[in-house]
Description:
The chain is built from ten helices and 13 strands. The chain is α/β, with parallel strands linked by helices.
Amino acid sequence: MSKIDAGITGIHGWVPEYRLTNDELSTMVETTDEWIMQRIGIKERRILKEGATSDMGAEAVRGLLTKTGTNPEEVEVLICSTITGDYHFPATSNLISDKVGATRAWSFDLSAACSGFVFGMQVAASLVQSGVYRKVVLVGADMMSSITDYTDRTTCPLFGDGAAAVLLEPVEEGLGIRDSMLEVDGGGVKHLLMRAGGSAKPPSHETVDAREHFVFQEGQAVFKVAVSKMADVSVDIMKKNKLSPDDLNWLVPHQANMRIIEAVARRMGIPKEKVMINIEKYGNTTAATIPLCIWEWEPRLKKGDNLILSAFGGGFTWGSMYLRWAYDGKKNNH
Length: 334
């Protein structure tokens, strides 16, 4: 039996309407538009005012199914990469499946923070490559506003809400996912985590009063590790697959910080015009940043384009994926 390749055959994103600008943030905490733009590169971020992560994920999946002409009942597996699930249980993917009518799919959540989409892509691709499944939907969705402390000037400018979904199917001609390098280091927990709410520190009056149900981050420590790990793994996957900067059409980096994106591109020798960047509009939407970029760039993608996805997240988690784009993006209604 010949090897089955898995590729993205459709993509759709969804973001809330409400824009939280730097100017509005500066009325909530001591900061300025200039300070945020210089250090992070974010101008505004979308905030979901009503609803939950599954609502954003369902919007993205509905759009995806419409675009690709896929009946919800044809979806066999639905994976949601998220760290802001609607509940501890049931899985947010179960709720999305119900909302979109994917009644024949089994579904589960994947938690890898900002690396969630890249990790999820490897899992989804493996299911297709196994020959058992032909239509797998992966959703990257996070409602970061639900765990952001809007009294903390160091973290509240960073995060936004959003979702994007991809359909993975068997592809031919050497297209689709070619390789991935995924890594973790659980020792990073002390630098980036939500301190309470889990079994290590269940919710209590004390944890709420201490504001421990929000993202905690040691910015400098995370920045340093993120730059080195994202750059190393992206350079390594290029070397392993004998790719030069000229061979690469697009770098799709996780949108956490403009300075991290620029440092990774420099290390890889990739010019800025080959880097997908939309951090200015959406901020860090965690598992949704990479697919939101691809969705926005879809009309510019051509069949056979070489893409490298690169991410770093809490855990620590990081990874890179090399894929060859499976269709001409202009042919799909955007």
